[in-house]
Recover the amino acids of this structure.
């Protein structure tokens, strides 16, 4: 029941004469309904790994199986289709369409894959209600707080029932009280059975996950249960 299996994953960027080995043989296995935080200092390869896991980019070497399908040698179009169906992205900067309502923002992934309008609206409303925004569906991003905007982004991530929710520093632009609300929402989504991968450099945020994987210089330096799961001695 593995959702993510990477086997000796390498990513090398060419910069002029220089080769930068951003990932140097990552072996990672994530099961359905795990809640994993990926930590590491700046430049350690977190974004690169997240781009590969999220089917935004392909590895230089090694393989990546998503739900048992090898997705490491696909064309950009094939990757885009799998991304739309399998990955729900949540970003630090929300990445919402400024001129569109919350409802329309959440409908976008369904427009992309050709879902009929009536079903689109029904599903978008359902996920907006599930993140507590039932009364804000007609609001535009600039009429909402940061926490509400991130809830819209989370609803958009959920609307296609993805295999993985991939959240990159989701609280990076939020104050500490709102950050806790958003982390509580992720915990609720995890309880409901979602598989979550959270990229963060903040230990306090990583502790909301059940498993903490630390990357250093492009390799996994440690992989352990979060303190939340480790009994106090
Ligand atoms: P993190 O997200 O942990 O800060 P990154 O994955 O962004 O780490 O970067 C890992 C390494 O790869 C760094 O040395 C970075 O400079 C390099 N890198 C990242 N993206 C690119 C790119 N598009 N081109 C060249 N080098 C890159
Ligand atoms: P195909 O060449 O038709 O994509 P596959 O066996 O790779 O054959 O895929 C069978 C079905 O699974 C297709 O509908 C495809 O869109 C879907 N699929 C492909 N990759 C993935 C994936 N990583 N996770 C879930 N479904 C996928």
């Amino acid at each position: 029941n593995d959702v993510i299996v990477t086997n000796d994953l390498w990513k090398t960027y060419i910069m002029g004469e220089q080769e930068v080995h951003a990932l140097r043989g990552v072996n990672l296995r994530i099961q359905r309904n795990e809640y994993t935080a990926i930590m590491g200092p700046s430049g350690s390869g977190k974004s690169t790994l997240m781009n590969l896991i999220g089917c935004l980019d392909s590895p230089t070497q090694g393989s990546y199986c998503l739900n048992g399908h090898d997705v490491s040698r696909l064309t950009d179009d094939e990757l885009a289709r799998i991304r739309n169906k399998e990955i729900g992205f949540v970003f630090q900067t929300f990445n919402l369409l400024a001129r569109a309502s919350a409802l329309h923002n959440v409908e976008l992934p369904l427009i992309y894959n050709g879902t009929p309008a009536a079903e689109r609206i029904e599903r978008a409303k359902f996920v907006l209600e599930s993140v507590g925004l039932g009364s804000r569906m007609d609001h535009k991003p600039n009429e909402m707080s940061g926490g509400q905007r991130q809830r819209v982004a989370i609803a958009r991530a959920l609307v296609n029932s993805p295999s993985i929710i991939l959240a990159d520093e989701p609280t990076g632009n939020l104050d500490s009280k709102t950050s806790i609300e958003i982390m509580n929402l992720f915990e609720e989504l995890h309880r409901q059975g979602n598989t979550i991968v959270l990229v963060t450099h903040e230990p306090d945020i990583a502790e909301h996950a059940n498993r903490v994987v630390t990357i250093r210089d492009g390799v996994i330096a440690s992989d352990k249960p979060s303190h939340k799961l480790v009994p106090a001695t």
